[in-house]
Specification:
alpha/beta, Transferase(Phosphotransferase), domain 1, 4 domains, 24 helices, 28 strands
Length: 776
């Protein structure tokens, strides 16, 4: 939690604000204290939205609908003032881990727990749908576990059933992997209560197996499988399968209603205040979180200060008046606070300090909200990042999330070294207005571990930006965590492109996305005289990656020559038939867009058949294992990539020498790219610290409480705004980010795509693809 800053109110609607929990595009979330002394989450709408008539109308409708959601298994909106100068709403704290956290930390749930969970969440959906809402984001992270049952949270993207104007066509809303086929198709006309039932089926399959039923990886791939493939229910206990199969029917009309699920699993629903519905390990985790919540920190109970400024104005919400300052509203709040904090008010039991309390609950207390403002995770108090009292410069931390172990450890470690070298050089220069610090965490090549690492960085308020993760799968798993924390995430090696699925404000590409390789192949094919009739092989083992490159390459190649496309099934080991087909078609060149292992097999088969024409592979083949497995057959292969060889590029010579001195080895791929990104972050921080740019602006376009010139206290949001308009020359390429999409801006003058050729058993760096073809 951050202390209140300049511009933060001390009181809103009779609630005393104690600190800032988070901020997003539409509002700020505060920790508040009610008249009865209970802790609440108060969400205050940003001023620019408060003046938007359309937003106010939506806010009124959704708050009114959310207040009608009455279920013991759904978190409610307990207070609101939709007519205030800046509208606000209040929700209670919910103590306990999310289902996602419980499964990752404690393993899958047993049959009884899964069916109990399904019955209770279905009961919550009955209430949601009965209030005229569709939740649209039922997922493990939005289900919190308590001793007496789960709580469905976050109506941030819910919409009223009769309000089709609030939903845009061709925009996917929800979380890939847990949304329905109609959501994946962005078919707004048919998204209704059955969509939530499908999502619940995905959630229950996850709880029973530890994995989503339509796999993981790039969002586009998950959406495709959701629409076209059967769910993977391997490992789901037989007792659960019939109902889950019905929930996961592609046809919304074939799915059961949530009331049917409640009826079928009613016998598993726990009764009473506490029930042993969860396995012991999860129960212990829930109890620890609940105990932390009940052990009030040493903050004195408060009462309303009559002289304190309070937003006023009574506006009907669901047929009743909700006033910021009336005696009736004050009495209602006191009663609500007593209900919300039952067992909390009264003498404060001995417990941890306030700072310790916030640290303990930071991993598991989520503030649920209706009315379109989403959910917010309680963050730890900021660490000491300033030496203001002693006159020392401030220190800002750059996080590195990378695969430091696992299959991709070579690229992950290279990125860590590049960051460490850049930070060391920055700190060694005299006259810097601040110092930098590196904090590196290993996500070990696994999505679940990646989420835990992201959550740790999000909770560490000294971290202003994170470089990584290493792989597309890890990025897809964590980008939502970074969005929620407004923590800038800068990719170096990952290529995933979210723009066709859902925007992610914090995810910034510092390299071309997957399609850039297809563009490079097509560009080379247009210029090279010996390409001729081209065979293009798509590898379903790396499905989406290969498809995206192939589609763009085919479009360009067909402008000049005939193309013979072939798709090989996932897991193919014998490439003799596909190579035979290509050669029978009299191709002059071959393009392969798959994994390094499959590329090695294709290379050996082409060599066996004495094919000597141009052979082109993609970045996955820029791997020493390709050279080792293919042997002499790798000679002559051309490889597209977004990474340089720093030992062969003149602009990177000083960096390469410094890397050798510091680490005793030449830089591996992506070390130089990571080094450049640190420079980008440092320049952005320096611009802000020096009052450069637009110091009063934030990424959402609203004033930042720390944005006055001359104040070197920099927050994540202010840095994000500056990074989204970054343009900086580097040793690898010019780092220019498109402010609208967050993607690297490709031009012919600065493509960010390079070519390598296998020569003498190693990779020889040829240079920028545009420069190479200019010499052909």
């Amino acid at each position: 939690m951050e202390p209140l800053g300049v511009g933060d109110p001390a009181w809103v609607g009779g609630y005393r604000l104690l600190g800032r929990l988070g901020a997003g595009g539409m509002g700020v979330v505060y920790l508040g204290r009610s008249v009865g002394g209970g802790l609440v989450a108060l969400k205050l709408v940003q001023a620019e939205f408060a003046g938007d008539v359309g937003f106010r109308e939506r806010f009124v409708r959704e708050v009114g609908a959310a207040r009608r959601v009455v279920s013991r298994w759904a978190v409610a909106v307990t207070d609101a003032d939709v007519g205030a100068v800046r509208p606000w709403l209040v929700t209670p704290f919910v103590a306990g881990p999310s289902l996602q956290e419980a499964v990752v930390g404690c393993g899958v749930l047993p049959v009884g727990a899964v069916s109990a969970l399904g019955g209770m969440v279905a009961e919550a959906l009955v209430a949601v749908h009965g209030a005229g809402l569709v939740h649209r984001d039922v997922k493990p992270a939005n289900i919190l576990l308590a001793l007496d049952g789960p709580r469905l949270i976050d109506f941030g993207i819910a919409r009223a059933l009769d309000d089709t104007a609030l939903t845009s066509t061709d925009v996917v809303v929800g979380s890939p992997g847990f949304l329905s086929p109609e959501q994946a198709r962005a078919d707004a006309d048919v998204i209704g209560p059955p969509s939530d039932v499908f999502s619940l089926g995905c959630v229950l399959a996850y709880a029973a197996t530890g994995r989503p039923p339509f796999g993981s990886g790039a969002p586009e791939a998950m959406l495709y499988r959701t629409v076209h493939d059967a769910p993977d229910l391997d490992g789901v206990p037989q007792e659960l399968r019939p109902l889950l199969e019905r929930c996961l029917a592609k046809d919304p009309k074939a799915r059961p209603g949530p009331a049917d699920i409640v009826t079928e699993w009613a016998q598993d629903t726990p009764q009473g205040e506490v029930a042993a519905w969860l396995p012991e390990q999860v129960t212990q985790l829930v109890a620890e979180r609940a105990a932390a919540m009940l052990a009030l920190p040493d903050v004195e109970r408060t009462t309303v200060d009559p002289a304190a400024p309070v937003d006023g104005g009574a506006v009907p919400v669901d047929g009743g008046a909700v006033s910021g300052g009336s005696e009736r509203a004050t009495a209602e709040r006191a009663a609500q606070a007593a209900e919300i904090t039952r067992g909390v008010d009264g003498p404060t039991p001995a417990g941890p300090s306030r700072r310790r309390f916030l640290t303990v609950v930071s991993g598991g207390v989520v503030l649920a909200a209706g009315g379109g403002l989403g959910a917010w995770t309680l963050l730890r108090s900021p660490g000491a990042t300033t030496g203001a009292d002693s006159g020392a410069p401030r220190t800002y931390t750059i996080g590195v999330q990378a695969a430091l172990t696992g299959e991709h450890r070579r690229a992950g470690r290279a990125q860590q070294r590049g960051v460490e070298l850049a930070v060391a050089e920055f700190n060694a220069r005299e006259g810097q207005p601040f110092r930098l610090k590196v904090r590196a965490l290993d996500d070990a090549d696994g999505p679940e571990r990646a989420v835990r690492v992201a959550e740790e960085f999000a909770a560490d308020r000294s971290v202003l930006a994170v470089i990584g993760p290493t792989t597309d799968e890890a990025v897809s798993a964590v980008v939502g965590v970074y969005d929620e924390a407004l923590l800038p995430l800068l990719s170096v090696s990952a290529q995933v492109n979210f723009s066709s699925v859902t925007p992610h404000a914090t995810y910034l590409h510092t390299r071309p996305t997957t399609g850039g390789q297809g563009w490079a192949i097509g560009l080379y094919g247009e210029a090279a005289s010996d390409i001729g009739r081209t065979g293009v092989i798509t590898d379903r083992t790396v499905d989406l990656y290969s498809q995206q490159i192939t589609q763009i390459a085919l479009t360009a190649l067909r402008k000049k020559q005939e193309v013979v496309p072939r798709v090989v099934p996932a897991g193919t080991e014998d490439f003799a038939p596909v190579v035979a087909h290509m050669l029978a078609e009299k191709v002059d060149s071959v393009v392969f867009t798959g994994s390094w292992a499959a590329a090695a097999s294709v290379a050996k088969e082409l060599r066996r058949r004495r094919f000597t024409g141009p052979r082109i592979a993609t970045e996955l083949a820029l791997d020493p294992r390709f050279l080792e497995r293919a042997g002499d057959a790798a000679e002559g292969w051309l490889i597209t990539s977004a990474t340089i060889d720093a030992t062969a590029k003149g602009e990177a010579a000083t960096f390469a020498a410094a890397h050798r001195r510091r680490f005793g080895a030449p830089p591996a791929p992506y070390a130089a790219e990571a080094y450049d990104v640190v420079g980008l972050v440092a320049d952005s921080l320096r611009d802000i610290a020096g009052g450069g740019g637009s110091p009063a602006a934030s990424s959402s376009g609203r004033p930042s409480p720390r944005a006055s010139s001359g104040d070197t206290a920099i927050d994540r949001e202010r840095l994000l705004e500056r990074l989204r308009r970054a343009d900086r020359p580097g040793i690898t390429k010019r780092l220019e980010i498109d402010g609208k999409t967050g993607r690297f801006h490709i031009t012919r003058e600065n493509s960010g795509m390079f070519l390598h050729r296998v020569e003498g058993g190693g990779f020889r760096f040829l240079g920028d693809v545009v420069g190479v073809i200019g010499q052909l």
